[in-house]
Design brief:
Layout: E1 15-16, E2 32-37, H1 52-61, E3 66-68, E4 75-77, E5 80-85, E6 91-96, H2 110-121, H3 139-143, E7 153-157, E8 160-164, H4 172-175, H5 186-192, E9 206-212, E10 216-221, E11 235-240, H6 244-252, E12 258-259, H7 268-272, E13 281-285, E14 288-294, H8 304-313, H9 316-322, E15 327-329, H10 352-361, E16 368-375, H11 380-392, E17 396-403, H12 405-412, E18 420-422, E19 428-429, H13 461-471, H14 479-496, E20 499-510, E21 515-516, H15 519-522, E22 530-531, E23 536-537
Parallel strand pairs: 1-22, 2-11, 2-12, 16-17, 16-18
Antiparallel strand pairs: 3-4, 5-6, 6-8, 7-8, 9-10, 10-11, 13-20, 14-18, 14-19, 14-20, 15-20, 21-23
Helix pairs in contact: 8-10, 13-14
C-alpha cells in the first residue's frame, strides 16, 4: 500500500487501538476523536483508493470476505462465515454472513461480491488493484474489454459465492482481504458514478456523515455493524490542510488525538527526549521499503547502465541521517521482515566513480538532465535534495518537482510524466504479508498501466512468468520452494535496476493520552495506517 498498503514515511503510520470501553456507553463527547492530515483525501472508493492515507478510512467504511485479526497477520473470515478450498486449489467457496446491511439499509448478498470483483477488473474502472485478481477465471477476457463479467465468480445462492481460478494462487485469501475486494452496492455506484468515491456506501463500522473538501471528513459509527461492540467510537473527525508541526502542537494542547502525518522530522528528537511523551510514542518495524523509481520508458532511464549508475550514486546512509536514523539502508525491494528477503544479496555499493564510468559507457560522459518528483511534505523535499546532490556529483542535473502527494501519484500513473519519483510519503508498505505483493502492483507488467503503481513502468515478461509459477505453488508443502523462487525473482529485478531501494523504515507514531490502545495493535502490520474500528477513548 500503499499498500499497500499500503502504502510512505509512515511516521504516524499504522495506528490501531484496542479499547476497553465502548463509545455507545461513554459520556458525551468521549466517543469522538480528531485526526489531522496535511493533504486532502483523494477518494474513498475501495476500487480506486491506494495510498496509506485513505486506506484506513476505506477500511472503516467497507468490509471484505476476509480480514486480519487486529495487530496480527492472521487471516480470519469477515463478511464470510467460512470457506472451503478444493483439493486442486482451484475452487474457493465462501459462505456469507446473513443480516449484514449496507449503510443504505439493504442487505448484503452474494451478488454484491460478484459485482464488486467485476467492477475492479473492468478496465473502465481503471483500478490500480485489478491485477491482484488475475488468477480468477475470466480475468483476461474482462481486462481486455471483451466482456464485463468474470466467469470465475459464481453466485450459488444469496449467501454462497464460488470462485474458480485459472491456476492455484497461494495468496488468494490475502487478496480477498484487500481493500480492492471490499464490497460495494451496485445501486450506489450507479447512482453516483465517478463521484462514488466522494459518497461511499459500504457495510463498515463507520459511515461517512460529511465531507467538506479542503476542511474535514466526519465518520459516524454504524449502529448495525456486524461485529458486536465495534466500533468503539461515536465519531471520527479527520481535519485536512494541517501542517504537521501545527498538528503536533495541537496534539500537545489536547486538541488532536492522532497527528496523521506523524512526528515532524524537525521535532522528532525533541519529542523522543521529552519524558512527557515516553508512553505516547510507539515504535515498531514494518513491511516497508522507500525507493526511487526510474521510468524505463523515458530517456535516460531506458538504458540499464544509467539505472545502475543511479543505484551506485545515492548515499543511503546520508538519507537515513536526514530522517534522524529512523530506518536502515535497503538494497533490494523486499524489506527484511518479508519472507523471501535475500540475506546474501549485497546490492549496489555506494561508488560514485563507478557510477560516472557507467554513465560514460551509456553515452552520457558530458552529463544528462532529468526530473525528480517528490511529495511536498517534510522530510520528502529534503530527501529529494540529498538525492539531487548525489546525482550532481556524477554529472546528472536533476530538477526537483515538489507536489501534493495526490499529484505525484497521478504523475507516476502516466507512462511519460515522471522520469524519477522519490516514493517517500507513498512508499510501499505491504498490502498483505507475502512477497508477491512487492512485485505484481509495483514491479510487474500488470502494474505498468495508466493509474497503476508501477512507476518505473518496468515490464519483464520472463519474470512475470516466473512470478506466476511461484504463486501457483499453493500447497503448504511447497512453501519453501515458492519463497526460494521469489528470492531469485527479486535478485533478477535488481540486475535490471528499475528502482533504487533506499531504506526500510521504522515506524514511530504519537497519540493523545485519551486513546485506549495496546502497543501490539498500535503497530498493526496490516491495517495501514489506522484501524479505527478498534480505537477507544478513556
Amino acid at each position: 500500500m500503499f499498500s499497500k498498503a499500503l502504502k510512505g514515511v509512515a511516521l504516524a503510520a499504522l495506528i490501531a487501538g484496542a479499547g476497553m470501553t465502548t463509545a455507545h456507553n461513554a459520556a458525551a463527547g468521549e466517543g469522538n476523536i480528531t485526526v489531522t492530515y496535511k493533504d486532502d483525501v483523494s477518494t474513498l472508493d475501495p476500487a480506486i483508493g491506494y495510498d496509506w492515507q485513505n486506506w484506513s478510512m476505506i477500511k472503516s467504511l467497507f468490509d471484505g470476505l476476509m480480514d486480519y485479526e487486529p495487530g496480527t497477520t492472521t487471516l480470519k473470515p469477515d463478511l464470510a462465515t467460512g470457506y472451503t478450498v478444493s483439493d486442486d486449489g482451484l475452487t474457493y467457496t465462501f459462505t456469507l454472513r446473513k443480516g449484514v446491511k449496507f449503510h443504505n439499509g439493504r442487505e448484503f448478498k452474494a451478488s454484491d461480491v460478484k459485482y464488486t470483483l467485476e467492477r475492479v477488473v473492468n478496465p473502465k474502472t481503471q483500478s490500480p488493484g485489478a491485477g491482484f485478481f488475475e488468477t480468477i477465471k475470466g480475468f483476461a477476457e474482462e481486462s481486455a474489454g471483451e466482456t464485463e463479467s468474470l466467469s470465475g465468480v459464481e453466485v450459488v445462492d444469496d449467501y454462497t459465492v464460488k470462485f474458480t481460478l485459472s491456476q492455484p494462487d497461494a495468496a488468494f485469501l490475502h487478496k480477498m482481504a484487500l481493500n480492492f475486494a471490499h464490497i460495494v452496492p451496485k445501486e450506489e455506484v450507479e447512482k453516483w458514478g465517478q463521484d462514488f468515491g466522494k459518497h461511499p456506501v459500504g457495510t463498515g463500522a463507520f459511515a461517512l456523515e460529511d465531507w467538506t473538501l479542503g476542511q474535514h471528513l466526519i465518520f459516524k459509527a454504524n449502529p448495525d455493524y456486524h461485529i458486536a461492540g465495534i466500533p468503539k467510537l461515536d465519531t471520527i473527525t479527520v481535519e485536512v490542510g494541517q501542517e504537521p508541526v501545527v498538528a503536533l502542537l495541537r496534539l500537545q494542547r489536547g486538541e488532536v488525538d492522532i497527528a496523521g502525518d506523524g512526528i515532524p522530522p524537525a521535532k522528532f528528537l525533541e519529542v523522543m527526549n521529552d519524558p512527557e511523551y515516553k508512553d505516547l510514542v510507539v515504535s515498531g518495524e514494518q513491511l516497508h521499503t522507500g525507493y526511487i523509481t526510474l521510468n524505463t520508458n523515458i530517456p535516460p532511464f531506458d538504458n540499464v547502465k544509467v539505472r545502475q549508475a543511479v543505484n551506485m550514486a545515492v548515499n543511503k546512509d546520508r538519507i537515513v541521517r536526514v530522517i534522524n536514523g529512523r530506518a536502515v539502508p535497503a538494497n533490494q525491494p523486499l524489506p527484511p521482515l518479508m519472507p523471501g528477503y535475500n540475506t546474501d544479496y549485497k546490492g549496489y555499493a555506494f561508488d560514485p566513480e563507478k557510477a560516472k564510468s557507467l554513465l560514460a559507457e551509456a553515452g552520457f560522459a558530458d552529463g544528462v538532465e532529468t526530473t525528480l518528483f517528490v511529495a511536498n511534505t517534510d522530510p520528502q523535499p529534503r530527501i529529494a535534495q540529498a538525492i539531487q546532490q548525489d546525482l550532481s556529483a556524477i554529472g546528472m542535473k536533476v530538477e526537483i518537482k515538489s507536489l501534493a502527494q495526490a499529484n505525484v501519484i497521478a504523475a507516476g500513473g502516466e507512462a511519460d510524466q515522471a522520469p524519477m519519483i522519490w516514493s517517500g510519503g507513498m512508499a510501499w508498505i505491504a498490502d498483505f504479508p507475502d512477497p508477491s505483493n512487492f512485485y505484481g502492483p509495483i514491479l510487474g507488467c500488470g502494474g505498468a498501466v495508466p493509474g497503476g503503481w508501477n512507476w518505473s513502468w518496468y515490464c519483464n515478461e520472463e519474470l512475470d512468468a516466473e512470478a506466476s509459477k511461484a504463486d501457483a505453488l499453493a500447497d503448504p508443502s511447497q512453501a519453501d520452494t515458492r519463497i526460494d523462487m521469489w528470492r531469485d525473482i527479486f535478485t533478477k529485478v535488481m540486475a535490471d535496476a528499475p528502482w533504487v531501494p533506499v531504506f526500510n523504515e521504522q515506524r514511530y507514531t504519537i497519540r493523545s493520552p485519551r486513546l485506549v490502545a495496546d502497543d501490539a495493535i498500535l503497530v498493526d502490520p496490516v491495517h495501514i495506517p489506522v484501524h479505527y474500528d478498534y480505537i477507544a477513548v478513556k
